[in-house]
C-alpha cells in the first residue's frame, strides 16, 4: 500500500486557527484554573464550581458556533438529556456515596475518549486528520484519499484510546469496590507485575507499529492493531485496580481523575481542540499532584500503590488478636459525662462515620457541647474516607463550620492539651504502630497523636474488625481509651440524648 503515498514527508492540514476561537478557549481555560483554585478550599468550593460551569459553557458554545454541526437538534437533545440526568443524580445522590459517583463519572470520561478516538480512526477526513490528497499519488483519485490517518494523529489517538480504556475499566472496578458490590480487599493474581508490564509494553509497541506503518498503512492490519490496543487497555485497567485495597482508594480516585484528564488532552490534540488540551492537562496534572499528596500522606510511593495489596500479607495476623487483649467498654452515658467535663474536644471522623451516615448527629452533638462552653474541633486526615476530601464533604453537608475543621499538620500538636479525643469510624489514621512498629505495613504514615489525649472515646461496631491496612490498633487497649461498640450514628444520637 505504500505505493499509493507520494512521499514519506509528514502531513499537515495547515489550517489557521481563528483568533477569536483561540481567545474564547483561553478564557475558558482561565475559568478552569480559577475553578481548581476555588475547589482547593471548602469555603470557596461553591465559587470554584461556578467558575468551572462558566468555563465549560464558553468552551461548548464556542465549539458549537464555530464548527459545522451535522444535526444541531440531535446535539441539543443529547445536551438536554445529559444535563437532566446530571441534575437528577446531583439531587438524589447521598453524600456518603460521593466516592463511587466520582469513580462512575471518571469511567464515562474514559469511555468518551475511546469513542471519540474510534470515530476519528474510522472517519479521519471528518476530523481533519486525514493525510492530504496532495500527499498521495494520483491526488484525490487515490482510493486511499480521506481514509489514511496522519501518522502523528495515530500516536495521539492510540494513546488517547489506551488511557481512556484504562480509565473506564479501572473506574468500573473502583466503583464496584467503593459501592460494596465487590470486595474492597486486594485481589492478588500470580505474577501480576509481569502480566501488567507485559500488557503495557504490547500496547506501546502496537501504537509504535501504527505510527511506523508496520504491516501496512491502512486496511485490516491497522484496524486489528487498533482493536488490540483497545481490548488490551480495557484489560490492563481491570488488572491494575483489582489488587488495590480499600486503604488506597483515595489515591486510586485521584489517579483515575488524572488518567481521564490525560485521555481528554490526547483527544484534544487529535481534534485540534485547544480547550480540550488545556482542560485535560489541568485535570491530568492536578490529579497527578493530588495522587502524590495522598501517597505522601500514607508514606507510600505511587508505584507501591499501583502494585497493590496494601495490608494483604499482614491481614491474617492483624485481625485476630484483638479479643485476647483487655480493653474497656462504655456507654453513651459514660461518654456524655466525660464530654461535659471537658474543655476541649477533638473529633476524628473516618470511613465508619460515612457508612453509618452519622455526620448530622455528630454536628448536633457538637452544637450541644458548644452551648455548654466546650471547644470542639475536627481533625481530618488526608486519606480519611474513600476519596480526597471525603470527610470534608460529609461535614460540609452537615453544616459544620469550615473554621472548625483542621488538617493533620495543623492540629496534631493540640492533642497533648486535649481533654477528649473522640474517634468515630477511623482506624489506621490514629494507629500508633505507624510511628513505633517498623514491621507494620503503615509504618511511617503520618497519624494523629490521639494517645496524648487525656481521654479517648473510640466508636466502632465491634472489636473483631480491623482497618483496611489489616493491623490491630494499640489505641483500643490504652488505659485512657473507652470503646463504644455500636453503630456510629446510633451511638452519637444516644450521646446527644444523654447530654440533653
From TrEMBL:
The transhydrogenation between NADH and NADP is coupled to respiration and ATP hydrolysis and functions as a proton pump across the membrane. The keyword Cell inner membrane applies. It is a multi-pass membrane protein. This is NAD(P) transhydrogenase subunit beta. It is an enzyme of class 7 (translocase). Belongs to the PNT beta subunit family. Gene3D superfamilies: TPP-binding domain. It is found in: Cell inner membrane. Residues 22-497 form the NADP transhydrogenase beta-like domain. InterPro entries: DHS-like_NAD/FAD-binding_dom, NADH_DH_b, PNTB-like. It catalyses: NAD(+) + NADPH + H(+)(in) = NADH + NADP(+) + H(+)(out). The chain crosses the membrane at residues 20-39, 75-94, 101-121, 152-176, 197-217, 223-242, 275-295. Its EC number is 7.1.1.1. Keywords: Cell inner membrane, Cell membrane, Membrane, NAD, NADP, Translocase, Transmembrane, Transmembrane helix. Its main location: membrane. The keyword Translocase applies. It comes from Parerythrobacter lacustris.
Amino acid at each position: 500500500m505504500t505505493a499509493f503515498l507520494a512521499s514519506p514527508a509528514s502531513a499537515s492540514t495547515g489550517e489557521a486557527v481563528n483568533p477569536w476561537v483561540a481567545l474564547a478557549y483561553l478564557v475558558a481555560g482561565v475559568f478552569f484554573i480559577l475553578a481548581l483554585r476555588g475547589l482547593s478550599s471548602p469555603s470557596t468550593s461553591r465559587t470554584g464550581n461556578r467558575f468551572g460551569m462558566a468555563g465549560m459553557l464558553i468552551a461548548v458554545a464556542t465549539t458549537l458556533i464555530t464548527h459545522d454541526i451535522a444535526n444541531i437538534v440531535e446535539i441539543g437533545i443529547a445536551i438536554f438529556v445529559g444535563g437532566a440526568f446530571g441534575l437528577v443524580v446531583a439531587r438524589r445522590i447521598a453524600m456518603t456515596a460521593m466516592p463511587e459517583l466520582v469513580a462512575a463519572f471518571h469511567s464515562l470520561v474514559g469511555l468518551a475518549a475511546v469513542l471519540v478516538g474510534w470515530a476519528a480512526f474510522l472517519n479521519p477526513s471528518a476530523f481533519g486528520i486525514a493525510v492530504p490528497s496532495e500527499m498521495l499519488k494520483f491526488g484525490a483519485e487515490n482510493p486511499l484519499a480521506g481514509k489514511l490517518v496522519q501518522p502523528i494523529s495515530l500516536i495521539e489517538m492510540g494513546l488517547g484510546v489506551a488511557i481512556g480504556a484504562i480509565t473506564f475499566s479501572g473506574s468500573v472496578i473502583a466503583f464496584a469496590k467503593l459501592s460494596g458490590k465487590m470486595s474492597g480487599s486486594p485481589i492478588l493474581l500470580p505474577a501480576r507485575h509481569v502480566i501488567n508490564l507485559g500488557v503495557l509494553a504490547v500496547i506501546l509497541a502496537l501504537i509504535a507499529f501504527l505510527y511506523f506503518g508496520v504491516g501496512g498503512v491502512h486496511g485490516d492490519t491497522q484496524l486489528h492493531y487498533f482493536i488490540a490496543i483497545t481490548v488490551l487497555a480495557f484489560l490492563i485497567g481491570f488488572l491494575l485496580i483489582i489488587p488495590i485495597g480499600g486503604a488506597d482508594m483515595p489515591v486510586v480516585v485521584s489517579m483515575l481523575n488524572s488518567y481521564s484528564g490525560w485521555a481528554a488532552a490526547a483527544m484534544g490534540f487529535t481534534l485540534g481542540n485547544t480547550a480540550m488540551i488545556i482542560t485535560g492537562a489541568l485535570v491530568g496534572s492536578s490529579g497527578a499532584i493530588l495522587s502524590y499528596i495522598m501517597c505522601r500522606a500514607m508514606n507510600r510511593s505511587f508505584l507501591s500503590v499501583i502494585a497493590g495489596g496494601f495490608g494483604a500479607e499482614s491481614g491474617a495476623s492483624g485481625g485476630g488478636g484483638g479479643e485476647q487483649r483487655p480493653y474497656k467498654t462504655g456507654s453513651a452515658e459514660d461518654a456524655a459525662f466525660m464530654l461535659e467535663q471537658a474543655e476541649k474536644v477533638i473529633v476524628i471522623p473516618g470511613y465508619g462515620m460515612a457508612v453509618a451516615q452519622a455526620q448530622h448527629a455528630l454536628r448536633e452533638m457538637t452544637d450541644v457541647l458548644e452551648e455548654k462552653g466546650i471547644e470542639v474541633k475536627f481533625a481530618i486526615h488526608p486519606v480519611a474516607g474513600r476519596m480526597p476530601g471525603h470527610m470534608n464533604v460529609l461535614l460540609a453537608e452537615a453544616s459544620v463550620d469550615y473554621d472548625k475543621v483542621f488538617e493533620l499538620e495543623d492540629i496534631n500538636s493540640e492533642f497533648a492539651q486535649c481533654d477528649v479525643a473522640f474517634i468515630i469510624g477511623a482506624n489506621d489514621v490514629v494507629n500508633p504502630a505507624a510511628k513505633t512498629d517498623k514491621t507494620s505495613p503503615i509504618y511511617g504514615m503520618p497519624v494523629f497523636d490521639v494517645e496524648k489525649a487525656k481521654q479517648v472515646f473510640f466508636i466502632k461496631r465491634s472489636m473483631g474488625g480491623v482497618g483496611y491496612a489489616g493491623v490491630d490498633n494499640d489505641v483500643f487497649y490504652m488505659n485512657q481509651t473507652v470503646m463504644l461498640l455500636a453503630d456510629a450514628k446510633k451511638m452519637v444520637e444516644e450521646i446527644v440524648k444523654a447530654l440533653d
